[in-house]
Amino acid sequence: MLLALLVFWAVGAYNRLARLRSGCVQQFGALDAHLGQWHAMLQAFEAQPKAEGQSPALVHAQAALHQTAAQLQAALVDARGRPLRETALASLEHACSALDVAWQAMTKVAVDTGAGAAGTGTGAAPSDAPSPDPDPLQPWQQRWTEHQVRNRLGLQQFNAAAERYNAAIAQYPARLLAWLLGFRPVRSLLVEPVASKAQESGT
Question: Is 153:178 a contact under the CB 8 Å cutoff?
Fold first, then answer.
């Protein structure tokens, strides 16, 4: 009788842990979709024709943005194959933070040089020239902000699922079963980008 109760408990505990871990994978899938759309936006931004005469600073900033976008793509590919592995999540978190830093740096250089998104680098217009077109970088910045909102929501939902799962495998006596069956804690992800935190601390 005691053995039957123990088996019944073990099966129920295993099913609960497996369901919670599956919830983490499901939430990562939603986050992956958000990040994939974010990367697609960057590809569209980079596909724009670049004007001649760009400043060296802007060229360097755009190259850094391209490199970090490629880093994000590689991190996403790696994480899709092992979505709950700590090293994969750490790489993905680093890639997102690096991309946010690169975007902020590129937009700052573009504004400082008067280049806009296309990098015209034309400098100040003559006083009798017609009014310039609206900043071409503004719609991209708006899209970037919209993606960041969705990314943050996806991160929060993933972290909430990971918190529930981690709490379950830490409870006694379920933690003994988790240890025996290989249920490992899931790493939470940084919600606020590093660049955003640095800007807030500097204000």
Answer: no
Apex CA 70: angle with CA 69 and CA 76, to 5°?
90
Cβ 51 vs Cβ 118: under 8 Å: yes
Is the previous residue joined to 132 through a cis bond, with omega within 30 degrees of 0? no
Hunting for tokens 């972290």 — which residue is that?
Answer: 159
Please state the length of the chain: 203
**What does the angle CA 97 – CA 99 – CA 102 come to, to the nearest 5 degrees?**
115
**CB atoms closer than 10 angstroms to residue 51:** 14
Kindly give the confidence (pLDDT) of every residue in the chain, 203 residues in length, as a single tens digit, with 9 standing for 90 and above: 777 777 777 788 888 999 999 999 999 999 999 999 999 999 999 988 876 777 889 899 999 999 999 999 999 999 998 889 999 999 999 999 999 999 999 999 988 887 554 443 433 433 444 444 557 788 999 999 999 999 999 999 999 999 999 999 998 888 888 888 888 999 999 866 544 544 444 44
Report the 3 state secondary structure along 40-76: HHHHHHHCCCCCCCCCHHHHHHHHHHHHHHHHHHHHH
Q: What is the DSSP code (8-state) at residue 189?
A: -
Of 70, 76, 102, the residue nearest 89 (C-alpha): 76
CA atoms within 13 A on the CB side of 74: 10
Residue type, 5: L
